[in-house]
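Good morning,

Attaching, inline, the C-alpha cells for the sequence recovery test we're adding to the shared suite. The designed sequence is right after.
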C-alpha cells in the first residue's frame, strides 16, 4: 500500500512553525551563548568554511587576481578563474596543468597559510573543556593553531594529501614536498611531465584527497579520526554532563555534515546546547530555540565577544 505523504512527514517531522524569524538582540544572544559555553563540560566544535573566512582566509577578489594572474591569462577570467574554490573545478587539459594549479592552491590555501589568531582565541576560550573539532575545512588551521591532531576529524580531506584518482586502493600520500618542488618548477602554469605522480597500484592518474567526487579515499587515518570522534561523542552523551555544540560558519553548502546533525542531537538530548555562529545563516529551528543561540554576525567579532565573557 502506498504511504500517503502528509505535510508533517514531508517536513521530516520538523514542526511546520520551525525556521521562523527570530528577533533577539546581538548582545542578549552573546550573553546566552557565553553561558552555554561556560557551563559545558564538553564542547564539540563544528567548523565550516565560514570559520576560515572569519579568521582571514582569502580565496578570491584582488588577492586571487594577483596571486593567480598567470592562470587567469592562460585560462581566461571566465567562471572558473574567480577564486580558489571555482578554479579547482577548471577542466585542466592534462595532468601537468592540473598539478600546476593544485600545487599552488595547496601551498597558498593550506600548507603555507597561517590565519590562526582567531582559532587560537577560540581554543584559549575553551581551555579546561573536553573539546573535539569536526571540520569540513581542508586548510589544516586548527592543527596549526595547536589543537592536537587526535582531537580533529576533517571529514572532507585536506590540502596536504593526494590519492589515486579512481580510489583503487585505500591510501593517501603526503604531498607537501612534492608541491614545493612543483612550485619551483612550474612554467606557463604547468609542471614538468616527470613530476606528475602516478598511482603506484594501478598506474593511473592521481588527484587531491578532497571529497569532490565518488572516488574520495577514506584511509586508515580517516577511519581512526572517525572512531575518535564517535568515542568522544558517546562518552559525552553517556556522561549525562553538559554538552555544548559550537557551530562555526557551517552554512548550506554541505549542511548534512555538521548543521543538520547538530540540530538533531540538540532536539534529542536535553543536556545539549547549540551555539550557532554564522555571518547570515544562524537561524535556529524554533523547537530547539530555548536551548540554542543563533548569532548572525561577523564571527570574528562574535568569537572575540564570547571569549571576553566565558
Ligand atoms: Zn590507482
Amino acid at each position: 500500500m502506498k504511504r500517503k505523504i502528509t505535510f508533517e512527514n514531508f517536513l521530516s517531522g520538523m514542526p511546520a512553525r520551525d525556521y521562523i524569524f527570530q528577533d533577539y538582540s546581538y548582545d542578549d544572544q552573546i550573553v546566552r551563548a557565553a553561558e552555554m559555553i561556560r557551563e559545558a563540560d564538553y564542547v564539540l566544535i563544528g567548523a565550516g568554511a565560514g570559520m576560515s573566512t572569519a579568521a582571514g582566509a582569502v580565496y578570491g577578489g584582488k588577492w586571487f587576481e594577483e596571486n593567480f594572474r598567470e592562470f587567469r591569462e592562460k585560462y581566461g577570467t571566465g567562471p572558473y578563474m574567480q577564486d580558489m574554490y571555482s578554479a579547482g573545478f577548471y577542466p585542466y587539459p592534462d595532468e601537468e596543468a592540473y598539478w600546476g594549479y593544485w600545487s599552488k592552491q595547496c601551498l597558498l590555501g593550506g600548507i603555507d597559510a597561517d590565519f590562526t589568531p582567531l582559532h587560537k582565541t577560540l581554543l584559549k576560550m575553551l581551555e579546561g573543556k573536553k573539546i573535539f573539532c569536526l571540520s569540513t575545512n581542508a586548510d589544516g588551521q586548527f592543527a596549526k593553531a595547536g589543537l592536537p591532531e587526535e582531537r580533529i576529524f576533517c571529514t572532507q580531506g585536506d590540502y596536504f594529501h593526494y590519492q589515486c584518482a579512481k580510489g583503487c586502493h585505500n591510501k593517501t600520500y603526503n604531498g607537501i614536498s612534492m608541491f614545493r618542488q612543483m612550485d619551483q618548477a612550474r612554467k606557463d602554469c604547468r609542471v614538468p611531465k616527470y613530476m606528475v605522480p602516478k598511482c603506484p597500484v594501478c598506474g593511473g592518474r592521481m588527484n587531491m584527497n578532497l571529497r569532490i567526487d565518488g572516488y574520495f579515499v577514506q584511509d586508515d587515518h580517516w577511519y581512526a579520526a572517525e572512531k575518535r570522534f564517535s568515542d568522544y561523542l558517546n562518552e559525552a552523551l553517556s556522561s549525562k554532563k553538559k554538552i555544548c555544540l559550537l557551530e562555526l560558519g557551517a552554512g548550506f553548502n554541505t549542511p548534512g555534515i555538521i548543521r543538520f546533525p547538530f540540530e538533531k542531537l540538540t532536539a534529542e538530548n536535553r543536556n545539549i546546547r547549540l551555539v550557532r555562529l554564522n555571518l547570515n545563516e544562524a537561524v535556529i529551528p524554533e523547537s530547539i530555540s530555548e536551548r540554542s543561540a543563533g548569532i548572525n554576525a561577523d564571527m570574528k567579532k562574535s568569537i572575540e565577544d564570547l571569549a571576553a565573557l566565558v
